[in-house]
UniProtKB/TrEMBL annotation:
The modification 4-aspartylphosphate is found at D606. Residues 97-153, 248-305 form the PAC domain. SMART domains: HATPase_c, HisKA, PAS, REC. GO terms for cellular component: plasma membrane. This is histidine kinase. Gene3D superfamilies: 1.10.287.130, 3.40.50.2300, Histidine kinase-like ATPase, C-terminal domain, PAS domain. Residues 557-673 form the Response regulatory domain. Its EC number is 2.7.13.3. It comes from Cognatilysobacter bugurensis. Keywords: Kinase, Membrane, Phosphoprotein, Transferase, Two-component regulatory system. One of its GO terms (molecular function) is phosphorelay sensor kinase activity. The keyword Membrane applies.
Amino acid sequence: MLPSPLLELPSPLLEAAFNQSPAPMLMLGPTSEAVIVAVSDALLARVGRSREQLVGRTLFEAFPANPEDEDDNGVAALHDSLARVRESGRAHALVAQRYPVEVRTDDGQMRYEERFWDAVNAPVFDETGKLLCILHSSTDVTARVSAERALQGCAIEARVAAERAESQRRRLDAVLNAAPVGIVVSDARGGVRRTNRAHHRLWGHPQPAVRSVDDFADWTGHWADGGPRSGQRLEAQEWPTARVLRGEDASHDIIRIRRFDDPETSRVCLMSAAPVTDDQGRRVGAVLAEMDITEQVRAENELREADRRKDEFLAMLAHELRNPLAPIGAAADLLALGSADPEHVRQTSAIIARQVRHMTGLVDDLLDVSRVTRGLVRLEKSRLDAKRIIAEAVEQVRPLIEQRGHRMTIRLLADPAIVFGDSKRLVQVVANLLTNAAKYTPERGEIGIELSSEDDRLQIAVTDTGIGMAPELVDRVFDLFSQAERTSDRSQGGLGIGLALVRRLLELHDGTISASSPGPGHGSRFTICLPRLDPAGAELADGAAPLLPPETGQGLSVLVVDDNDDAAQVLAMFVEMIGHHATVEHNSRDALARAKRERPQVCLLDIGLPDIDGIELARRLRASPETADATLIAITGYGRDQDRADALEAGFDHHFVKPVDTARLADVLQRASH
């Protein structure tokens, strides 16, 4: 029997219901010491202890924190929860609380095993309102199997309680209402005799009366078990209680239910029913346990969808990266044939340049998304004219628009349209939308861009007459990897991550973006919304000066150091073509010796050299009197802000990321020659 006088039980019913409950439960004394006065069998089995080892000890002596686990905050959380129950007189729940438990291994050693629990601490009062004890019930949610076993155990516990505890209804209700799952007790005809609070929270109010299984027709549920019947509505005779009363098994039903107080809201439940029998084994009723698993199902579906989209994206990424390799390889083979026709060489070179730019764009898109999503992008904000942003974006995309024969309409405000932001990034946002419009609109289509104002917000709308979007795609078009589904026609190329990047860049500007489409084949509209500033104020930021095109230099002596023979030779050829003198070395030691002899004015250094890396090579060149004043230019595949900072700290004057922007390199060499 449970200890007296803490709980004076008129019958063994509550003791049996308590001890046989599948949910691990404790009865705790009402004081802050939380002395364990009763332990359910399920808890003893779960923790591998005996009742004698626990009863009479404080809760936190019996279940201490793991001193070697810095993340073990279960004791503190449980302590606070019990204090809240004592102070407020109301139940308190702990959801998915991490609380490692000591278990005995096969070799007899004790170790802590990580567990997660849903726990409820509920006060139990006598008829005068005095706190008798605190009922601590918990559900191990570490694995679904444990949850299902706990659910079936709850049904058994509720069946026993329903058969024998009518005369003790109030105290039995206290135990039932402490359970974290819905419980329904029915008679032999299916009429509902008793329910708990969790059931009413799950279904909402008011609920129709159920006098027999035929009344289940008023309850809306659809199968959600992933089988052939998924999505079908349950008939009255298909509900778990009805099937159990017919002698069928209904121990694991997954059903999507519709709430009564809010029919638009549905919940996914794991339901388990068991028969209630008399001493002769006759079915005299049924008990049903309901567990809300909506969030678990949603999380599983999201993980499956994310995994599917990831696989599609990786397949598309492989396809997009292979595409430019074919013309590059063919062009390289043509050049290897040694044709002396300058026009053929020019055309072949142009093909390689275009495909390299395309591959660079793909890699830049990936890096941009990675930097933005990890918060590594630093914006250089200033007051900007939105009309100038639009003009620069249109200028970038104009060649593609003209190539595809589109007609473009531009509508701008007459009044000043000032925003605060990073010019480069906002131009990138608008250019991305225009590029998408041009790509996904069949040739000779119509593209529009309009700047408008509403209150203190500016709107930039980009419209097209292209392939449009289905409603389900509009809802997720800004998610990573979803853009690839916009059309199966991938002839325009691209990774389909640009819109995810657009949304994140706008969020960094306190802006938003929305999409709409009448449907496939009827075009799309993307609308940017940004805070509008007062036109009066500081002067607008100047636009960046355009890079100078490559010109013949003043005959600089340039040392190229790269362990990749092809990369070094191509870079040296370019340096020679724009009027300078290039020498090549493939390792740092030979480069130091040559630099000491020939005193180069400029050194183009690869960072990833095999013997001495480019950073250390730069430091030694700076320390040498022969090259202390040389212009040092880093050539590297690493483009993070930290990589740039490391290069400049080592003595580099400039930092270039591969593939090298030749126009910018030519400009740097031209300036160095003056």
